[in-house]
Amino acid sequence: MGYKIKDNSSKSTEMEPVVALSSKEQFLFFVEEHRGLVWGGIFLVIAVIGGMITLNWLSHQEQDKAWELEGRAQETFLDRPLDDIEKGKKNIQQAEKMFRDILEQYPGTSSAKVSSFLLGNSLMETENYEGAIQAYTSFIQDYAQDHVLVGLVQQRLGLAYLLTGNREAAVNTFEAVMGNPHALNKDQVLFELAKLAENEEKTDDAVKYYKQLMQDFPLSPFSSEANLRVKVLAPESAQESGETEAGTGSEADQDKSETKVDQIGEEGKKE
Fold first, then answer.
1. Which of 168, 229, 215 is nearest to 187 (CA)?
2. 138 is a domain residue
3. Is residue 97 domain-resident?
4. Under a CB-based contact definition with an 8 Å cutoff, are residues 80 and 92 in contact?
5. How does pLDDT run across 108-143, given as a tens digit for each residue?
6. How far apart are CA 198 and CA 230, in angstroms?
7. Is 71 a domain residue?
8. Domain count of the chain?
9. What is the pLDDT of residues 133-186, one digit of tens each?
10. Range of 107's domain?
11. Does the residue 189 lie in any domain?
12. Please, what sign has the CA dihedral across residues 235, 239, 240, 242?
């Protein structure tokens, strides 16, 4: 019996084609396989966003309450009848308590910064200078990045030190203001340093500060007062300065006159 060998060479030996999935199909396939993980991530994102919105809303609510209390505190602080000194003192003490309440209840708000400064001012008004020093020092530590306002607080701190008799600390504090490139009250601090030196009969130092004030801040309202003090403390120096300015002005006028004469001469030659 003969056998017939089956020939398979005619059949295609090609492999089935691999179907490539698109990015969208791959994503849907991943979601389908990890459905629980995906939904958990979605709920987590929603919870985080909801928490941020809630915190932001609560922050605004706290800020509004803080500003409301701040407004009442400032109104009470400024309410000082001239015909009722006792009432004025009580109002300052009441405002002081309100400023402290703001610092305790709303420490992270912008009104807390203002309250910290005004607390020191209220303590100065009630002659609690040690308390004012503590309040101003705390402000400088807590809000060191606010260079402009720190310069103003340092000036107040220097005055508080002076009122307690601590001259060295006062001078160091005033000099800290002068070393602050962002401070806007350097002219007033120079004037304070000059007055302090004048009260201690350190005439040379006083004149030096007054002259620095006049030179660095000629448009300052303290400059005219400094000029008067220099004339009183060092009249010869003031006179020399005046003569120098007058001489400079005369030379300038003379140069202008000579220039004008030269121009006239040149015009005559051209004619």
1. 215
2. no
3. yes
4. yes
5. 788 899 999 999 999 999 999 999 999 999 999 999
6. 11
7. yes
8. 1
9. 999 999 999 999 999 999 999 999 999 999 999 999 999 999 999 999 999 999
10. 58-126
11. no
12. positive
